[in-house]
Specification:
The protein is α/β, with parallel strands linked by helices. The chain is built from 13 helices and 24 strands. The protein has two domains: about 220 residues, Alpha-beta prism (UDP-n-acetylglucosamine1-carboxyvinyl-transferase, Chain); about 210 residues, UDP-n-acetylglucosamine1-carboxyvinyl-transferase, Chain. β7 and β8 form a beta hairpin. The structure holds uridine-diphosphate-N-acetylglucosamine (UD1) and phosphoenolpyruvate. Its EC number is 2.5.1.7.
Length: about 450
């Protein structure tokens, strides 16, 4: 597929699509499979770039990866894990942040690991200080090099007590993947508890781990000497489901998202309803539609689970350009996630970004120079433009904007979208979008 898409807007997206497993679970569960001494199997695996990247990295480390794309089944055999060449790891790390999660499993299997330069969306600085501190507390030695970081565990890995400064998803996963086979007990306070993490814990438990999730963000892990392979069906990608819901709202459409599940989306659904969107939870998924009439402006703050997820923010902001009145969006998870609004302004949207914490409680980014609040004034008709995709969700948001706008937009850099949206071109076509490769 070319990196450019011509998108002619004005047609409400209508029809049905299927969303498969969550990018933010599948990629981590694939890494967890490294910890077993027998093969694991994951089902409902989507064909996205992040799954390719992790497959490549696992193969480099001697894991046999067998992926039946149509069936969505991936089988991972980690019985012959081996050390990979640093240059190869670097070359394969690509666009994903997942390589950092290989540390715990590789330290347990091989006694050393290497963290290459990480990818992932440029929506903030995205430091890895919590990860390195966690590894050090387990007893690992962190050796920063000119390129990448080498981690070793000359005296093994030992359970520890950790209190995270912020409930980071990746750091919580780093701790889980290290603690399950460390010697002794580990206690994590201020843990992230996103549904994808709870499912990762469930997968680790199936592999033989002992993990309890207590109230108030406390997770306790009793290390075990050995884990075995397990099977699990991935939970649906709630970010993708929310993205299509926002697309239905912005374009005045009606989309049945097969596979979407209410459980991880309650906060999104409440906001969707407040804004004026309609939805119906069915056995096979969730139907989202624009019921006609005006949409309502809203005040919204992104937060860790169970709050409104940051990854839902960008697509919903496009729908808010079509709502009547002033919407206020306070981004509290990433300091730099409003870059995508520049293109929307060029298309006619009225969006102002601010350094202040607007509309909610002060966050970590207040009084610093980050434009992390936005005021959207609507409704504004959007007009076609030539735009360049900045990041994964920002990219999908640009697609929604182009589909909402009058005229034909040229959207460049769309390959990034493959990182988290399976077959988005096929789905757009199925929903009646007028799109053609540029
Ligand atoms: C592959 C994956 O699952 N990505 C998700 C994961 O990203 P990721 O795991 O990278 O996100 P984190 O929850 O770790 O990041 C949250 C915040 O913590 C900060 N932080 C994080 C680690 C660290 O060592 N130091 C530090 O300061 C980050 O800069 C950010 O401001 O959770 C995010 C929050 O739900 C989602 O937006 C991403 O889609
Ligand atoms: C920020 C995201 O992902 P990653 O952590 O993979 O960059 C995302 O999925 O929106």
């Amino acid at each position: 597929m070319s990196g450019i898409l011509n998108v002619t807007g004005g047609t409400p997206l209508t029809g049905e699509i299927t969303v498969r497993g969550a990018k933010n679970f599948v990629s981590k569960a694939m890494v967890a499979a490294l910890l077993g001494n027998t093969p694991s199997e994951l089902r409902n695996v989507p064909q996205i770039k992040d799954v390719d990247v992790v497959s490549g990295l696992l193969r480099l480390h001697g894991v046999d990866v067998d992926y039946d794309v149509d069936a969505g089944v991936i089988r991972l055999d980690p019985r012959n894990v081996e050390t990979a060449h640093v240059a190869d790891i670097d070359a394969h790390a690509g666009s994903s942040r997942i390589p950092i999660l290989f540390c715990g499993p590789l330290l347990h299997r091989l006694g050393e690991a290497f963290i290459p330069d990480l990818g992932g969306c440029r929506i903030g600085d995205r430091p890895i200080d919590y990860h390195l501190e966690i590894l050090r507390q387990f007893g690992a030695v962190v050796d920063k090099r000119a390129q990448g970081i080498r981690i070793t565990a000359p005296r093994g890995l030992h359970g520890t007590k950790i209190n995270l400064p912020y409930p980071s998803v990746g750091a919580t996963e780093q701790l889980l993947l290290t603690a399950v086979r460390a010697e002794g007990v580990t206690e994590l306070r201020n843990a992230a508890t996103e549904p994808e993490i709870i499912d990762l814990i469930a997968f680790l438990q199936r592999m033989g781990a002992i993990i309890s999730v207590d109230t108030d963000r406390v997770i306790r892990i009793e290390g075990v000497a050995e884990l075995h392979g397990a099977r699990q069906t991935a939970l649906t990608d709630r970010i993708e489901a929310g993205s299509w819901a926002s697309a239905a709202l912005a374009t005045g459409g009606d989309i049945l998202v097969r596979g979407a599940s209410q459980a991880g989306m309650m906060t999104f659904l409440n906001t969707f309803r407040r804004v004026g969107g309609a939805f119906e939870v069915l056995d096979e998924g969730i139907r989202f539609w624009h019921p006609g009439g005006e949409l309502n402006a809203t005040v919204l703050e992104t937060d860790v689970h169970p709050g409104f997820m940051t990854d839902w923010q960008q697509p919903l902001v496009v729908a808010l350009t079509q709502a009547t009145g002033l919407s206020i969006v306070h981004e509290t998870v990433y300091e730099n996630r409003f870059g995508f609004t520049e293109a929307l302004r060029g298309m006619g949207a009225t969006i102002q970004v601010y350094r202040e914490c607007l509309g909610g409680a002060p966050c970590r980014f207040g009084q610093r120079n980050f434009y992390h609040s936005a005021v959207v004034s609507g409704p504004t008709p959007l007009r076609a433009a030539d735009i360049e995709v900045p990041d994964l969700r920002g990219g999908f948001s640009h697609l929604i904007a182009a589909l909402t706008a009058e005229g034909t937009s040229r959207v460049g850099g769309i390959d990034i979208i493959n990182r988290g949206y399976e077959n988005f071109m096929g789905k757009l076509e199925a929903l009646g979008a007028q799109v053609s490769p540029g």
